[in-house]
Amino acid sequence: MGLENLQHLLEHVRPTVLFHIGEIPITTTVFNTWIVMLILFPTAYLVSRRLQARPRGMQNLLELLADFFNGLLEDNMGKEGRKFLPLVGTLFLFILFLNLSWFIPDMKPPTTDLSTT
Fold it and tell me: What is the mean pLDDT of each run of 10 residues along the chain (117 residues)?
């Protein structure tokens, strides 16, 4: 494989610069990550404001995920693993939604960029 082929492959992996804020280039990776964050923040706010003692709907799903990760962390780290639950859960949901952004038309998921992975 020659250098020409490598350069051709890098064009498909390298993010495109959309615009600059001062000297800082804003690439498709950064912009698409911002879009996912703009979707997640209001959703998290709305879900966390309607918590009930008897979970239903989205709260039920989130409690199921929290119990799963809590069990996973405690199995691997003991009782100390519980304090990492917010970090692990947040990273899981953020990366999941970054990958699911593939289904938004004309949006390249930020996780396809080599500097993200």
Answer: 69 79 91 91 86 82 88 90 89 90 86 73
C-alpha distance from residue 16 to each of 21, 59, 85 (Å): 15, 38, 35
Asked whether residue 117 is domain-assigned, the answer is no
- Domain housing 107: 3-112
Distance CA 75, CA 85 (A): 13
Residue 108 counted as domain residue: yes
Distance CA 6, CA 65 (A): 41
CA 82 to CA 69: how far, in whole Å?
9
Overall pTM surpassing 0.90 (yes/no) = no
